[in-house]
Amino acid sequence: MIPFRILRRSLLAAGAALALTAPAQARDVTTDKAFVDGVLDRSYAHLDALYKDIHQHPELGMQETATAAKLAKEMRALGFEVTEKVGGTGIVAIYRNGPGPMVLVRTEMDALPMEEKTGLPYESHVVTTWNGKPTPVDHACGHDIHMAAWVGTATALVAMKAQWHGTLMFVGQPAEETTQGARAMLADGLYQRFGKPDYGFALHVGPAPAGTVQYRAGAYSSNSDSLEITFHGRGAHGSTPNESVDPVIEAARFVTDVQTVISREKDPGKFGVISIGAIQTGSAGNIIPDTAILRGTIRSHETEVREKLLEGIRRTASAVAAMSGAPAPDVDIEVGGRAVINDADLTARTAPVFQAAFGDKATVMPTPINPSEDYSEFIIAGAPSLFFSIGGYDPKLIAEAAKRGELLPGNHNPGFAPTPEPSIRTGVEAMSLAVLNVMAP
Ligand SMILES: [Zn+2]
Ligand SMILES: [Zn+2]
After folding, report:
1. What average pLDDT does the segment 88-111 reach?
2. From ligand 2's centre to the CA of 1, what distance in Å?
3. Which of 1, 90, 286, 325 is spaced 20 to 30 Å from 413 by Cα?
4. Nearest Cα to 372, choosing from 325, 331, 411?
């Protein structure tokens, strides 16, 4: 997942509206938060060390064996029953505490195939083998922050076990970045073997100010599909283009013409993106090649927009091939992360807790985020959920960067360097209070 907008919308109006419709809060959020903070004061040094260890030793999707082992050890020490190797490298940690709802809390465990350039003392210098090549690895999406907050939340909830009832299902998911991990865990019988959660929660850190929480009902993230098109032609000498059917021309036309699907066919008020990130063709300046391969990503929030984009891509690809008198292209669209749709009731039930705990630092996101998330698979399989964002940068750093007219590096940038404290603390507070709210009404 990639950059999160810095959300600035005042929540006064939205907060007042939610307060009218949300059920009365039986629990005192201020007391609960003080308790969680007390647990954090005792456990924070450990969480910080865990975070830095995971950050310095990142692993790519489906290779997260050392990371999964670290999390499994933490959860066993807290009294969870841990099953490893669920859907590849995934882990499931169960804590039974009497009759009551089953609540899923997810973290992702994977890092990204890129070189870290933060200069932090705990910077990663890990190089692994990926697609047969030596590849640097970096926790540039903040999943290390999520893992520390996940363990911290488990620590807080176990410390508060006299105050809630039910079953915690803490899931450590592999391969979020490739949107394979959630599906792999579900296909390995996650809900059949361990039970179907009544509620689910997950969070993501971004470049908003640390200490803040952002949430919204309905769509939170986008649909993501990946695209691969092979244009076919006929190769020839560069000096005799008349003997060729030039796939470079087909590819070039496609790249520009497909943007009219966005600018002329899609409703301009609705989110939709088609980005071509790779073109592979040819070998030398004087050879017209016989094929061109394009790869891209397609993003949308709504099913109807997604279908319009997919149809437009297929039509444009066929049309540019026809213009060149080329054979029909191969258009391969692979479904990636589907949009995360937050449950309206669960969001309305959690919003007053966030507002009581964080005041004006808890805000409603005006729009969904552009990136995608495969947490949606857990929702589609039957767990009504709330996926929310937390800020990750010291507000002072954001203000200094703003004075220079700069934005701090966001997720997936090699310079992404969230401030661990209070980001991890805020993650633990928000997640613990959200879970407690549905398990101890
Ligand atoms: Zn990411
Ligand atoms: Zn991410």
Report:
1. 98
2. 4
3. 90
4. 411
Distance (angstroms) between ligand 1 centre and the Cα of 235 equals 39
Q: How much distance in Å is there from the Cα of 422 to the middle of ligand 1?
A: 21
Angle, CA of 371, 373 and 376, to the nearest 5°: 135
Q: What is the distance in A from the centroid of ligand 2 to the CA of 266?
A: 28
pLDDT-derived band of residue 27, with 50, 70 and 90 as boundaries? confident
Q: Which residue has the higher pLDDT, 16 or 1?
A: 1
Structure tokens at 334: 């692979």
The answer, as to whether pTM is greater than 0.90, is no
Residues 6+ apart with CB under 8 A from 43: 152, 155
How far apart CA 386 and CA 221 sit, in angstroms, is 12
DSSP state of 154: H
List the domains of the chain with CATH numbers: 12-221+339-439 (3.40.630.10), 223-335 (3.30.70.360)
- Please give the Cα distance from 414 to 148 (Å, whole number): 21
Structure tokens at 390: 């937390």
- Distance of CA 389 from the midpoint of ligand 1 (Å): 13
The CA 310 to ligand 1 mean position distance, Å, reads 24
The percentage of the chain sitting over the pLDDT mark of 90, rounded to a whole number, equals: 91
